[in-house]
Amino acid sequence: MPALLPREPMASPLQGQCIDQVSFKIAENRDERSAAFRLVYHAYIRAGLIEPNPAGLRVTPYQLQPSCDIFIASLREEVISTVSLVADGPRGLPMESIYAGEISRLRESGLQFGEVSALADRRRHLSRTLPVFVRMMRLMVQNAHRKGLDRLLVAVHPRHARFYQRFLSFKPLAEERSYPLVCNHPAVALYLDFAEIHRDRPPNFELFFGDRLPDEQVLPRPMPASDAEYFAEAALFGARFAVLGPDASDA
Q1: Is the pTM of this model over 0.85?
Q2: Fold of the CATH domain 19-210
Q3: Cα(224)–Cα(210) distance, rounded to whole angstroms?
């Protein structure tokens, strides 16, 4: 579940003195993934979304799957923002623990989809956070589209839903429910349909799809088995909720 988001979009979301100094990529080594998980941990602790753990990392079993990509923004070699995209796989999706019926119906429809998860930023000020968020989301949605996903899903706090709907063209998927993954905070489910936005061209379409990013920047970077094993113990602290994916009996 994304943590700290601005409530309203800015008029000029790509403006910012330092934005050209920030690099955006998919994490591709253990150090980069560790930095992302550490950033999420501190942001979620600050927001009261998780309990402290001795690993000092926020990582879930879903993020250890080869179907997950972890996006990072770095300034002077420090990771300052991150978000993960968990494509549907054997474990399913994190939000499936509270939206099992809705996810099951999507699978039955034959759609390919993934969940936006583990969003965090080290900064609190909107004018510094949003420009980075926009560019990182552009990288993520182009990665998802190039993977062949039909939809992006997200479970967000109800007060953030309006931002996703107005600025990113997400639509409601399911009603508010209590989410054990984040200390039972409320969440609502939203979806973004790629076919719809390419047909309707909403106001911010060009912001995310106007410039095609190079393949080498958006191609998936699956986590190797050695890294999945390295983070497995820390992931136990992020697995204290029901895992209800299609192969849950094997999880």
Answers
A1: yes
A2: Aminopeptidase (3.40.630)
A3: 32
